[in-house]
């Protein structure tokens, strides 16, 4: 603990000194000390890297204020509520009393990640409102811990969730409270003693990297799906997460220097990576097919990530299943696959299944249109060209119609 710099959301250093200390009830409190950073700051806050006289004078003043706050806390006179009141008195800022019911509105974007955060936060908000908690400042570490524990037996049904699922909810709630709490207020979901305990029913996964032979089998199995093939080669060559692969931009690709430059979406880390030969072949092919002013290397994957993020996962998992299925499993799957039928002959049954399924009307209308076009002899590329819809959307909706009807009518391997 001690005085420190803080970075704002834009990445710039905030103008005031900050400090951290423990309160009477054991909470770690980070506060704006109300002392402006003066002079020329050094590259780090090590004593050996001291700044000029004005800077060191402001650091000493901030340290003195922090020491006084710590001494009061040790004597038992400062609680978490006192710390928040002190913050208001020092800075003149009004504490934001964000209502619990308004927390889900923090995540308004329509991306898959945004929807997952919103669902997790909405679940907590409903639970907390049922407990009579009205604002974010009323959420203590005990309340946070009680909620995470109750996730293991959600709705009292006895269904145990995996620790990874509860941990993801804790991360989303920590991010939400970072935004909702006033600056300097302790975040109950980031307290060290609010931890995720592993239950006896949790599954453990021991992952091993693919061998050279397995990589070859995987890439070979992906030849039937160009998009999945390119995404897999990119992931194997760079080690990037799914979102970073799908959102890879051309302005970060330098084929002449064989280098990639990007900022990761999760950790905001700047990366400079070599372009390996297999991935370079993918980039050169896509560069030749690139539409004018296209920003993304994999535009169809970027669209799918926004509209249907599980679609990317499904297509890649399918390639893994083809590559690594045991012979007896593959034989059983082939034997269980119905023979392909002409869609023109099975059109009425397929449309009946689509119309009977539960889905949004707009999606149903689009799916019916695609099925009729495919039955009339149009290919996926033809439908893409005439309707202006992405090829991935056409393919996904036709596959969904095939699954709903139980009738295999699409070309290609089952």
In sequence order, what are the helices and strands, one letter per element? EEHHHHHHHHEEEHHHHHHHH
- What coarse outline follows from CA principal-axis ratios? globular
Over all CA atoms, what is the radius of gyration? 28 Å
Low-confidence stretches: none
CATH-defined topology of the largest domain: hpI Integrase, Chain A
CATH architecture of the largest domain: Orthogonal Bundle
- Tally of alpha and pi helices: 16
CATH classification class of the largest domain: Mainly Alpha
Please summarize the sheet with the most strands: 3 strands, antiparallel
Widest beta sheet: strand line-up: 3-4-5
**What portion of residues belong to β-strands?**
5-15%
Secondary structural class: mainly alpha
Summary keywords:
414 residues, mainly alpha, hpI Integrase, Chain A, 3-stranded antiparallel beta sheet, 16 helices, 7% strand, globular
């Amino acid at each position: 603990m001690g005085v420190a710099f803080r970075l704002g959301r834009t990445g710039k250093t905030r103008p005031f000194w900050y400090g951290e200390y423990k309160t009477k009830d054991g909470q770690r409190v980070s506060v704006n000390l109300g002392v402006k950073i003066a002079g020329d700051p050094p590259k780090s806050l090590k004593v050996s890297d001291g700044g000029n006289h004005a800077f060191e004078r402001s650091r000493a003043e901030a340290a003195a204020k922090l020491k006084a706050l710590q001494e009061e806390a040790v004597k038992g006179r400062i609680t978490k509520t006192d710390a928040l009141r002190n913050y208001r008195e020092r800075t003149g800022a009004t504490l934001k009393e964000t209502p619990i019911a308004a927390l889900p509105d923090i995540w308004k974007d329509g991306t898959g990640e945004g929807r997952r955060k919103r669902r997790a936060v909405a679940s907590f908000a409903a639970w907390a409102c049922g407990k009579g908690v009205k604002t974010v400042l009323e959420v203590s570490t005990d309340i946070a811990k009680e909620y995470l524990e109750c996730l293991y037996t959600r709705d009292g049904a006895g269904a145990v969730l995996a620790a990874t699922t509860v941990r993801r909810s804790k991360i989303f709630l920590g991010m939400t409270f970072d935004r909702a709490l006033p600056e300097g207020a302790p975040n109950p979901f980031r307290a060290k003693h609010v931890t995720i305990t592993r239950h006896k029913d949790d599954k453990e996964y021991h992952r091993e990297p693919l061998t050279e032979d397995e990589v070859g089998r995987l890439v070979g199995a992906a030849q039937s799906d160009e998009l999945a093939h390119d995404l897999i080669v990119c992931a194997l060559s760079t080690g990037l997460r799914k979102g970073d692969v799908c959102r890879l931009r051309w302005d970060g690709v330098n084929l002449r220097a064989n280098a990639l430059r990007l900022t990761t979406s999760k950790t905001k880390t700047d990366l400079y990576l070599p372009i390996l030969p297999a991935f370079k072949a993918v980039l050169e092919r896509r560069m030749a097919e690139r539409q004018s002013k296209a920003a993304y290397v994999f535009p169809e994957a970027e669209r799918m990530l926004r509209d249907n993020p599980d679609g990317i996962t499904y297509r890649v998992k399918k390639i893994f299943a083809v590559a690594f299925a045991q012979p007896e499993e593959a034989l059983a799957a082939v034997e269980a696959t119905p023979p392909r039928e002409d869609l023109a002959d099975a059109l009425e049954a397929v449309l009946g299944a689509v119309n009977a399924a539960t889905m949004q009307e707009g999606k149903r209308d689009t799916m019916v249109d695609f099925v009729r076009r495919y039955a009339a002899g149009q290919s996926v590329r033809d439908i893409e060209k005439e309707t202006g819809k992405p090829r991935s959307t056409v393919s996904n909706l036709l596959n969904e119609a095939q699954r709903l009807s139980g009738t295999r009518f699409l070309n290609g391997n089952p």
